[in-house]
């Protein structure tokens, strides 16, 4: 299980690094917009992301 978790974390890091590598100015603008969001909006985005990820894992497994 630990090996699979390590692989998953590595893949997340690779995927997270794609946009800043390819589009650094655009990525910086997105981060600036995220800073302006309220805590509630960020929590809702985090919840939506977790639910989407869980649903996709369920469908793929």
TrEMBL record:
Pfam families given in the database record: DUF2065 (PF09838)
Signal peptide annotation: none
Coiled-coil zones: none
Annotated keywords: Membrane, Transmembrane, Transmembrane helix
Transmembrane spans: 6-23, 44-60
The protein, known as: Transmembrane protein
Species this chain originates from: Pseudomonas taeanensis MS-3
């Amino acid at each position: 299980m630990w090996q699979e978790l390590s692989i998953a974390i590595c893949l997340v890091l690779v995927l997270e690094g794609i946009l800043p590598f390819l589009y650094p100015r655009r990525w910086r603008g997105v981060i600036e917009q995220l800073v302006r969001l309220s805590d509630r909006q960020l929590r809702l985005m985090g919840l939506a992301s977790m639910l989407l990820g869980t649903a996709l894992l369920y469908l793929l497994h």
